[in-house]
Known about the structure:
Blueprint: H1 41-54, E1 63-66, E2 81-84, H2 90-100, E3 106-111, H3 112-116, H4 120-129, E4 134-139, H5 174-180, E5 185-190, H6 194-206, E6 211-216, H7 228-232, E7 235-237, H8 249-255, E8 263-270, H9 284-287, H10 293-298, H11 303-307
Parallel strand pairs: 1-2, 1-3, 3-4, 4-6, 5-6, 7-8
Antiparallel strand pairs: 5-8
Amino acid sequence: MQPQPTEPKPNMNQNVTDATTVTVRDYMSPIRPTWCPGCGDFAIWAAIKNALVALGKAPTEVALCFDIGCNGNMADKINAYVFKGLHGRVMPVAAGISLANKNIPVIAVAGDGGTFDEGIHHLVHSIRSNYNITLILHNNCDFGLTTGQATPTTPKGQKMNTSPNGVVEDRLNPTQFALNLNASFVAKGFTGDLSHLNIMVKKAIEHKGFSYLEVLQHCPTYNEFLNQAWYKDRVYKVEEDKSYDPTNLEMAYKLSSFSQERIPTGVLYERKESDAPIFLDRIEHLKANPATLAEQVKQQDVSALLEQFK
């Protein structure tokens, strides 16, 4: 067995804002990935690091949140401030971090299973509140970590490990779900096109408000019915259609229908910041205060309150 190359130790004391001085190497972790060969998570992992480097963000200038799942195995494989929580519960954690510190980008990384099963109500209220966070949704249409069960995004009729006769429920359309809630940013990427995925992750992080980025990916172990070749025959970049208007919600909704023969990737819908203020900007006394909530809490003197209990 060949020895593994040694990677640099994480430097969490680094504070870099110049894009020319931040490199992908700064985000390296000594922990090796355990994903299956060919897993789309490798591309998403790379795209997150590439986007943060392009934005000039050092590991100490970003927070990433994960839940349980194959996507969550990325948590210790990227050198940054990271929180890993319960399955399907990534959104409340990300929202809390974003509300506490409005000055850093907060990225929530989750799977289609946890997000649209027990986590669906968290997604609903995160979108309607328009928290300033980015959700990167790994959509491989199965529960990969628990050996290939169906998720709400698995096609109807598809045979899975716990659905040997085929899934009987109707399939949930995750893109249209986000559009129905009028999310302020809705985009799609594909793990088979890393260059384009890099751009989509960067755009999602740059958007002020709730950014929903669904990433289509192949699960080589439990999802051969939607493999890389199947996607490559169907995906296209919506920005190549010069007539497409990403501010048109009706157009985005129609384009995202499962009845379409082709699958659009790119920014499908984006609202102007003036039309979609983030949660903190809807609260006047917080909007006018440049300090973060975390800083405001530190500034409170509770000694008088404590005296009442003596």
